[in-house]
Amino acid sequence: MKIALIVISCFVFLVIPQCGWAGNCSPLQISFTGSYQLVPAEKDVYGLRLNLPVGENDNIYGLDLGFVGITKNSYNGIMLNLFGNFSAGSTKGIELAGLINFNISGPILMTEGGSGAKGIQLAGLMNLNLGDIDGIQIAGLFNSAQSVRGIQIGLINVTEELSGLQIGLVNYIRESPVPILPIINLKF
To answer: Positive or negative CA dihedral for 26, 98, 128, 165?
Structure first.
């Protein structure tokens, strides 16, 4: 308990000076839906966002907890949501979801500075990334990304380009001499 309190205190004291209590950002967001939340969705959150059940903001820097988290531009930090994390921009950090992580940055929707995901995506069901990922995707059923520099671990792994390793029952790399392999597929 003391360790958790120390970590939270350090987090608050490091994050609040980045934003302050005024301006276009907030150190705290408590959301019930996109329409009913402590601060408007257009404000950035530098700190903690609690999604009870759904939170929506343009940019998040910090810790995102709850049921469903939606970020319109960029996310930097840890997203831990029971059902899912949905981002339309670049993500850096850790995405943990009970069901799905879904990122639509990249060729379909490119935001300023949006290059996909960097870090870890961990989901009980699937990780869908329409952009690139530099890091690790781990899902119970399905992982997909435009290109992967790192590792995909899941029952089915799909990517256009890979510089790394896939571990799963079905592993597909479109830009490979042997595009489909069971158990392990690697390309560097």
So the answer is: positive
Please name the residue that has the structure tokens 């510089």: 163
Can you give the pTM of this predicted structure? 0.82
CA 45, 43, 85, 173 dihedral sign is negative
Tell me how far apart the alpha carbons of residues 45 and 27 are, in angstroms, rounded to a whole number: 6
Average pLDDT, the chain: 86
At 165, list the tokens. Answer: 């390793």
Closest C-alpha among 10, 82, 11 to residue 52: 82
DSSP string of 33-96?
SSSSBSS-TTSEEEEEEEEEEEEEEEEEEEEEEEEEEEEEEEEEEEEEEEEEEEESSEEEEEEE
Strand, coil or helix: what is 24? coil
